[in-house]
Amino acid sequence: MKIKIKVLIADDHHVVRRGLLFFLKTQAEIEVIGEAKDGVEAVELAQRLKPDVVLMDLVMPNMDGIEATKKLKEVEPNMKVLILTSFADQDHVIPAIRAGAVGYQLKDVEPDQLVQAIYAVHRGESQLHPKVTSHVFSHLSAHEKKETSLLHTLTNRERDVLTEIANGRSNKEIAAVLVITEKTVKTHVSNIFSKLNVADRTQAALYAVKHGLV
C-alpha cells in the first residue's frame, strides 16, 4: 500500500478550499488532513498535523502566506510549501521563494498540473508556474554580474550537481547519474548553496537556468 502525501490547504476563501478539497479527494495518493483560513491557523495546524505539503495562499488576513511560510520553515524546515495564488508579479514571487517556498503555482493552473506540482515538491523538486518565470529572471538579471562571478566559484563537479538539481533530480537520482555516493551529493549541494548564497533547491535551480546550465 502506497503512503499518501498529506496536504494542508491554507486559503481565506471558503469556496477555494472546498474546491481544492473536492478535487484532491479524488487523488488516490493524496490526503487532505486539514484546512486553514489564514496564516496564523496555517502555522498552528501545520505544527500539529505535520503535513508533507502545505498549499499556501499569499493574501490572507491576520498573517499573509509569505510570513506564514517563513515561520513554518523556521520550526519545520523539512516541510514543503507550495504557493497557490493569483499573483504572478515579482513583488509576490521573489519574497515567497526567499521565505522558503519550494513551488509557486497560480490558481489558473490545470488540476492535473497542480497534482503533479504537489508530487514534485513532495520529492523536493522546485515547481514554478510558467507565468512567474519571467518575473523571477527579471529580478535575477539585476544581479547578473555579481551572480556570474559566483558561478565561477563552483568546482566542475558542483556545476554538474547544480545542473542536475535544475533538471529536477533528487540527491539519490543525482548520485546514480554522476556515479557518486548520495552522501557526496549532499556535501556538494551544501557547498553550492553556500557559494551561490541561495537558501534551497528552488533558488539553486533558478540560478542554473538563468546562467544556461540546463
From TrEMBL:
InterPro entries: CheY-like_superfamily, NreC/VraR/RcsB-like_REC, Sig_transdc_resp-reg_C-effctor, Sig_transdc_resp-reg_receiver, Tscrpt_reg_LuxR_C, WalR-like
Subcellular location: Cytoplasm
A Gene Ontology molecular function term of the record: DNA binding
The keyword Phosphoprotein is annotated on this UniProt entry: yes
Keywords: DNA-binding, Phosphoprotein, Transcription, Transcription regulation
Main localization (coarse): cytoplasm
The HTH luxR-type domain, residue ranges: 147-212
Entry-annotated residues carrying 4-aspartylphosphate: D57
Residues covered by the Response regulatory domain: 6-122
Gene3D superfamilies documented for this protein: 3.40.50.2300
Record has Transcription regulation as a keyword: yes
Name of this protein: DNA-binding NarL/FixJ family response regulator
Organism this protein belongs to: Priestia iocasae
Lineage, top ranks: Bacteria, Bacillati, Bacillota, Bacilli, Bacillales
